[in-house]
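User: I've been going back and forth on whether these two constructs are worth ordering. Before I decide, could you fold them both?

Assistant: Sure. I'll take them in the order you sent them. The first construct and its structure tokens:
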Amino acid sequence: MYWTMGLILLVLWCLGLTAGSTEGYWVHLLLLFALLAFVLAVVSRGRRTAVT
């Protein structure tokens, strides 16, 4: 689930950069959230394999 959310946010970030909108740095929050989702996916995956 985290991988999917991260991928969607990463695509939205790329679209926000190429659209040339006047939102400023707000579009970079999408990148931050995408990276956070990827980190959560790696951490939860590592925790799951360590328990099993």
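The second construct, handled the same way:
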Amino acid sequence: MRTLHAIALTLLVIGGINWGLIGFFQFDLVAAIFGGQTSVLSRIIYGLVGISAVYYVATLFTGEEVEDDTVNTGRVNYGTEFAEENDIENDIDDDLEDR
């Protein structure tokens, strides 16, 4: 599912840039690259951008999110790479017992 989100987002960025170019400069980059607005390749790109927009709108209403590889346990780890938090606490406890 993550790959599908990445592809859809890439197509939406391409479509957004193309619409920005059309709006500001009256230049259709997709049409210029693929041989005009009525060429088969241009229509495929326009169709894929439209499908990815519908896909993203659908995910907004279903609450579907991109899966994350990390697991959030709700606990923050303030340890460093030099020592574990438990080691520091044990050292402090040992120092207090020595006093």
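Notes on the second construct follow. The chain has a mean pLDDT of 81. The chain is about 70% helix and 0% strand.
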